[in-house]
Amino acid sequence: MKIQFAPTDLPLTRRLQMASVLQWVFSFLGLAPCCIMMFFVLMFTRFWLISVLYAIWFFLDWETPSKGGRRFHFLCHLRVWDYMRDYFPVKLVKTADLDPGKNYILGFHPHGVLVAGAFINFCTYATGFRKLFPGLDSFLLMLPLWFRAPFFRDYIMMAGLIPSDKESASYLLRRQGGGNAVVIAVGGAPEALDARPGAFTILLANKKGFVKLAMEHGAHLVPVFSFGENELFDQVENPRGTWLRWIQDKLQSIMGISLPLFHARGVFQYSFGIMPYRKPINTVVGQPIRVEKNEKPTVEELDTLHQLYTEELSQLFEEHKGKYGVPEDQHLSFV
């Protein structure tokens, strides 16, 4: 394989963009294990008191993630996120106003490998979510597993991340006065196994929990499609029915996290590595679907709203795909 090296005379701005994405990739893939290791290593050094005090804090602060977390606005405003936005680049597209007096569930599609579009748009202020939708605070749901990692849990809460369980989402959706936008990557970890350039497979056919949650709290549903999300990484071929996919599905069912074998480019060369490609991400926020509060919806009512959501998502894709280089004959595949 011929390696294509990056030029040595890149502008400083490009290097800063690269550094910002590198720290983000490390945060997603390596920071949690490092934090866990540091917690236990400190226990056997003269700094053992740090781990002891943190353990007490961890116990006292146990319920914070499920009660809206602890966002630090200064972190969301850091310049590093502007550089990360410009690396791809990422753009947030508004198609309709969202009443700040209501609560919303934003269904994010597709998951992609590392949900880059969701993180930049809804966990930072780099793409102007708060300006486009004044009065709304966005909260991105993440696997509860990561909120058990010492130190790491505090870092991700500072960016507005909360556990992806019913209790955490319900806490926000119950708030009187509205102003909360709970962002759910509906396809979840399993959908990451289908994330590759040119793929438009959406895991939605049997995903009805978020619809039921919206009905129970009277939260309006908003479909969101992130064009370019699947273009950031290549992935080892793993079609359903192969031994690799069987192993990945099995591990996902046991651990709760998927393990896509992805690759893209490196820091100093363009031929291999785990840095994402510089591909544009255009995240389009669709029209809100009005949902009346119904604490005990019937199966028929749930199916009807789920079908409406699916149709609205499909329509959103069809209306905007031409603007972002998607072929006219390409349609979403719901599984």
The best one-word shape is: globular
Query: Structural class of the secondary structure composition?
Result: alpha/beta
End-to-end Cα distance, whole Å, is 36 Å
Major sheet strand order = 1-10-7-2-5-3-4
Major sheet characteristics: 7 strands, mixed
Specify Rg, calculated over alpha carbons. Answer: 20 Å
Written as H for each helix and E for each strand, in order along the chain, the element string is HHHHEEHHEHEHEHEHEEHEEHE
Helix content: 25-40%
Annotation field: number of helices: 12
Structure, described:
The chain crosses the membrane at residues 21-41. One of its GO terms (cellular component) is endoplasmic reticulum membrane. This protein is of the alpha/beta class. The protein has helices at 12-42, 48-60, 73-76, 79-87, 116-123, 129-132, 152-158, 166-173, 188-192, 209-217, 243-255, 299-320, and strands at residues 90-94, 104-109, 137-142, 161-163, 180-185, 201-202, 220-227, 234-235, 262-263, 281-285, 333-334. A seven-stranded mixed β-sheet has the order 1-10-7-2-5-3-4, sandwiched between helices.
